[in-house]
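Pvc16 N-terminal domain-containing protein (Actinacidiphila reveromycinica), 227 aa
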Amino acid sequence: MIHEVDEVLRGLLSGGALAGTGVDIAFEAPTRDWAARRNAPTIDAYLYDIREDVARRERGAISIRDEQGIVVRRRQPPRWYRLSYLVTAWTKQPQDEHRLLSAVLATLLPREVLPPEELTGALAALGLTIPLSVAGTQTDSRSFAEIWSALGGELKPSLDVTVTAPFPAYPEYDAGPPVTEGAGVRVRGTDGSLEGSAERHHRPRHLAERKEAARQAARGTLRDTSE
């Protein structure tokens, strides 16, 4: 799932205001050694934090239906994780880096949500829309100064980009066969005998609705034939 988010972010950073600029897109830690090897303008999106968004955690099971709408499998709801990227620009001049960061903002700000058709792999298969935030308020205790200190580099202008992505929960399991007959109830007499007692049947709602729809369709066919 994480590598799929990387590819989605790579596609976003390669388009928009950055389309056709030829800027390299990297996902490496921006250490001193890495920075010294840069010989072309680069946008670096370093994944520095992964945390579950517990506010999005769901309970229960999700039903998977076939073409007829019958439940064939069930699975647990996905767990959502916040992937935080430290996005920086690397050129020879600070002004050029500021222009690149401005282009990143112009590219990502309109993309507050990413629809399933723009995702790939398991993310697309879930059919869920994932949110994206840019340069939002930092809520955890870790400051960017501490991140740069851990990387061994000097503090540099950066954008905090957070993608909240679902991680599929496994395993899936087969559902039981659908109900095709109603429950039968037989009432005994006061003496315990079954003679003269009637058996009552309860038809499930979806079967009754299906039978009624078939009856209405048949009536329409007969009416068309008679006309």
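The mean pLDDT is 78. The chain has two domains: 2-174, 183-226. ok done for today
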